[in-house]
């Protein structure tokens, strides 16, 4: 077992992250640890920096200061090309806004990360269909995202995030636009898929019902994460 498969060593860890947009500080020394296979909820008020933190952890935004380490690799030291590769192979991301490509069918939206990774069309389509089935949206492969309900669109976005078999899923408000029944279906599907595949999930949410699916919760306020607490 390598050091990074050891449960005691976090898979992903951030320390002292700062990020400002112009004169607006979004992160002011944020840090956290995500262990392999765990579901960690990041909660906190609007504007507290949750999405910015998620984007830094996923290698989408480079922080001004601080470090993000993934399996021993420091993201700040990696070129753009390597970050892009990590996002395609090891990370799956569900964005807070505008996640599906409207011109593509549901199937092609989910197959896209596989096609970008070089898998053939038939195989990518078949694997996309499997994941759509797991998330309870089989039979809608030929539709465009605009023809789906909010809950169906979220489940398609989750299928796309999980289709490559990532080790970390970043989900930014995956139930943000949903009523409580649809939220429950989305979260049940996400938690089950993560458990089955062993993926860790960083779950950003302001909703207590959604956060309840996590193993652990940390709270953000004003660009920092409250001291790492141990909850059952
Ligand atoms: N691209 C950007 N350009 C300018 N300011 C930004 C940008 N992204 C975030 N901010 C600012 O950074 C701060 C943190 O924003 P962030 O989106 O991380 O908060 P959040 O906790 O995700 O909020 P919400 O719960 O509303 O999604 C806010 O003051 C926001 O206005
Ligand atoms: Mg946000």
UniProtKB/TrEMBL annotation:
<dbReference type="InterPro" id="IPR015854">
    <property type="entry name" value="ABC_transpr_LolD-like"/>
</dbReference>
<keyword id="KW-0813">Transport</keyword>
<protein>
    <submittedName>
        <fullName>ABC transporter ATP-binding protein</fullName>
    </submittedName>
</protein>
<dbReference type="GO" id="GO:0016887">
    <property type="term" value="F:ATP hydrolysis activity"/>
</dbReference>
<dbReference type="InterPro" id="IPR017871">
    <property type="entry name" value="ABC_transporter-like_CS"/>
</dbReference>
<dbReference type="Pfam" id="PF00005">
    <property type="entry name" value="ABC_tran"/>
</dbReference>
<dbReference type="GO" id="GO:0005524">
    <property type="term" value="F:ATP binding"/>
</dbReference>
<dbReference type="InterPro" id="IPR017911">
    <property type="entry name" value="MacB-like_ATP-bd"/>
</dbReference>
<keyword id="KW-0067">ATP-binding</keyword>
<dbReference type="InterPro" id="IPR003593">
    <property type="entry name" value="AAA+_ATPase"/>
</dbReference>
<keyword id="KW-0547">Nucleotide-binding</keyword>
<dbReference type="GO" id="GO:0022857">
    <property type="term" value="F:transmembrane transporter activity"/>
</dbReference>
<dbReference type="InterPro" id="IPR003439">
    <property type="entry name" value="ABC_transporter-like_ATP-bd"/>
</dbReference>
<dbReference type="GO" id="GO:0005886">
    <property type="term" value="C:plasma membrane"/>
</dbReference>
<dbReference type="InterPro" id="IPR027417">
    <property type="entry name" value="P-loop_NTPase"/>
</dbReference>
<feature type="domain" description="ABC transporter">
    <location>
        <begin position="12"/>
        <end position="232"/>
    </location>
</feature>
């Amino acid at each position: 077992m390598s050091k990074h498969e050891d449960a005691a060593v976090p898979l992903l860890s951030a320390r002292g992250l700062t990020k400002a947009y112009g004169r607006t500080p979004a992160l002011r020394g944020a840090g956290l640890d995500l262990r392999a296979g765990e579901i960690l909820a990041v909660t906190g008020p609007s504007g507290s920096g949750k999405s910015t933190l998620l984007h830094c952890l996923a290698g989408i935004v480079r922080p001004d200061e601080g470090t993000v380490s993934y399996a021993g690799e420091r993201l700040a030291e990696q070129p753009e090309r390597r970050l892009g590769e990590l996002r395609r192979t090891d990370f799956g991301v569900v964005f807070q806004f505008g996640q599906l490509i409207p011109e593509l069918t549901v199937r092609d939206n989910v197959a896209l990360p596989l096609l970008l990774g070089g898998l053939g069309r038939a195989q990518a389509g078949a694997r996309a269909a499997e994941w759509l089935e797991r998330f309870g949206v089989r039979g809608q492969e030929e539709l465009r995202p605009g023809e789906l309900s909010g809950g169906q669109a979220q489940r398609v976005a989750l299928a796309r995030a999980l289709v490559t078999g990532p080790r970390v899923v970043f989900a930014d408000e995956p139930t943000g636009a949903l009523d409580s029944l649809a939220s429950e279906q989305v979260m049940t599907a996400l938690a089950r898929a993560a458990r089955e595949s062993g993926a860790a999930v960083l779950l950003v949410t302001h909703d207590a019902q959604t956060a309840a699916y996590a193993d652990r919760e940390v709270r953000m306020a004003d660009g920092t994460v409250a001291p790492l607490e141990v909850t059952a």
